[in-house]
Amino acid sequence: MKFLNKVIDELLQQNADLSEFNIVLPGKRPVVFIRRILEDRNYSGFLPTFFTIEELIDRIAGQQEIQGIALWLFAFDVYKGLNLIPNDDFAEFLKWFPTLQKDWDDMLKFSDSDTAVLQYMFDEERIKEWAQDLGEDDDTPRKKFLNFWKNMNVFLPVLKKKLQEKEWATSGMINEAAKANISDFAKNTKQQYVFCGFNAFTPAEEKLVRSMLQWNKAQCFFQADRYYFDDERQEAGKFLRNHKTWKEFDDNRAFRWIEDDFSQPKNIKVYEVSGNITQTKILPEIFEAIEDKTYSNTAVVLLDENLLPASLDVMHGVRNLNITMGFPLKNLSFSNAVKQLFYLQKQLEKNRSSYYYRDIFPILEELPKSAEDELVINNFKAKIEERNIVYISKKLLQELLGDLSYYNLLIRAESANRYLDVLIEFCRKIKWLEIDDIQYENVSHFENAFRIIKNQLAPYQFEIRMETLEILINQHINSESIDFQGEPLRGLQIMGLLETRLLNFENVILLSVNEGKLPLGNSQNTYIPFDIRRVFDLHTFLENDSIYAYHFYRLIQDAKNVHLLFNALSSGVNTGEKSRFITQIEMESSHPIEHVIIENSSEPIVTQPIEISKTDVVMQRLEKWKEKVSASHLTSYLYNPIDFYLSKILNTSESDEIEEELSVKNYGNLVHYTLQEVYEVLKGKVLKESDLKDSVKAIDQYIETAIEKLKHQPEFYEKGMNFIHKAIAKKVIENILTYDLELIKDGNTLEILDIEKRFEGVDFYLEDHNKISFFGFIDRIDRLNGTLRIIDYKTAKIKNLTVKIDESNVEEYFHNSDRKQALQLCIYQYVVQNLPEFWGMPVETGIWSFAEAKKGVVSLQFEKGDIDDAMKSVKSLIEEILNPDINFVEEIKAYSNN
């Protein structure tokens, strides 16, 4: 730490007892490094006193700071007492006050008078200059702007007065009070102060430093470099160049120090990376090139805090890590669950009768849970998925989740205050569960936030709504982060840019060096226009850019190896544009810069088809399978042998998922089950016209029965696409019944023999007296004019029912998934011909497609060959499945635009 070493050496030359000095720093972090430097110097005296400049300003002001929730509640109480129009409720107030408060603090810190700024904002003549005619309508943006600042001219002075009466102050008020007390403080203090490594000051801070210098009670050490100090165009040196012009720096007191470190040899690499997370994947390669494997002189600076988890993932090989930056609380799982809880409460205010399953599932997944809760949740999910319940009634939720330890979080809260109590109690309980440290910290932060809000609300009489409580919690949590503990004096340092102040490293690695991240750019959240900020010397994004420029150049000026990574992909808010600071170095510095392009290859991964060999265990399972072979098993094998292996050998099945829109499969089941109900009543009868007419009238009733069979809720079909699917299903069923009715009207004799006919134990012989047994269900068996019809229902259109089989293709004819419909019908025909009750009857097999219901049954036709030839091909297919030398090989489907 070159700069800190110089400061300590200078102070030790002046006085061997450093306890005489008060060292004022931009932040707390350099203190541990100063202590190490003193230890290396074998310093044995008392340590100096350390302050941040904010702490010193607070001490001079002598006021107690109020911020966050306490300030918002107090300010709203004041606002309500003024009866201003619009008379915003607390939720509306919170949408604008936090931003206004920052603007007000800027007025108090940087302008001579916040009153002057407020009056200028309300100056109608000034507004007319850019707005011309304000208009009479209160809803016009110009009029609303004027009314807003008219109210603020009343509200903020009263708020200031009320805060002063309580001896409270915002950070801006503290700066203002300190400014008034600085002259007396500088004159009367007996202590010596050392200001180290500052760049930009507020007016109060500048007045403090200069007053102390004038009274010879302070020294000031700056860390500047000629590269950006001497060049007027370099924004990084903007504030330092101004400080050098202070009259306090003269022949007797030099401006210290301006170094020439940036021009020293450096290895600078710029990495253009395709993807945000991809930047972290390059870190191991960069570490590999660093000679000192303790990495004690290496810093990884994350300009995007969201990259911290991904960065840690790739640093598992680094023994000592010190994380200086905090990880935002809002990005952790418990935070997401709390957001979901409040969203659920808002939904319950709108819909008090049921719960949308997507509002419940994420909460159950994200919240920490006990083993008992896990069982309740798994049972709940299984029941909901099995019954495909999209909207869960309150009664059913109570029935399935009533034993959940935090069930009261899921029911509509009596009030926001009561819900706070429930949340606090929940956090208290789950901290006793076995949860990891980060989650424990996450829950603890939230419990603390809930308690703070409850305590702060206590003195006030107004009742807050759930929406307001959510805003309060979000505002509080957005500024919170989880701090990590580590060893700051050894190992790799992972930091944010502001944490690098006063520190220097030999190896510096910056991630996300993108425009919008470094510098932040024109992203100020403010109500004060740019031109007015300039008039009153309030900081604009330009000053902020200069501050960030200084931090960037100061960090790399002493480094030997600099790695700058930026995300070149434009997505979301990321423009894919590298920081202009990189461009400045490329254009203006004398250093050779190596450019590296890292592609996140999007080429498809070349995969080999999955291949499963038929081991002894697999062959044993196949022997078992032979006892119950269905036509669908064979079509599954044709489609993809691996699917057959997974379902028939391993006995796995796809997990149920809740359908918000009826799937093709369940649409087919709805029609299928309805037809089953319709014809079950007619089974064993020679049909009459009246039978079918009565069935048509009762379709709705039959559909409701089918819905119960599917375990769906009737409400599932009441609106949207599902209502349309149900209407289409009804039309298909009408078409099938009408087709049968027309057959009877035309004088045909139609008798329903069986519905969902189950068969099993129908033997089919292979080679060497080996055999399998067919089993399955035939959707419908009827007799039309004396001919037995075997009918299979299909949702899909009919394909390839004309069989052309001869000696040349008999072996492989059904080894083709395009012929699976014909394969199934051939097996059904073979089975029926072997069932005693149907011996001697002429048999016809066919498919009735729901997609073409008006066509009726389309029969299997043999243009070449017969059923015996077809079964030879079926036998060949079965023998292939049973052949131990033929592995199960995945069928990879080619992508097609057709």
UniProtKB/TrEMBL annotation:
Q: What region holds the PD-(D/E)XK endonuclease-like domain? A: 629-888
Please give the superkingdom of this protein's source: Bacteria
Q: Which InterPro entries match?
A: P-loop_NTPase (IPR027417), PDDEXK-like_dom_sf (IPR011604), PDDEXK_AddAB-type (IPR038726), Restrct_endonuc-II-like (IPR011335)
Protein known as: PD-(D/E)XK endonuclease-like domain-containing protein
Species for this entry? Chryseobacterium hagamense
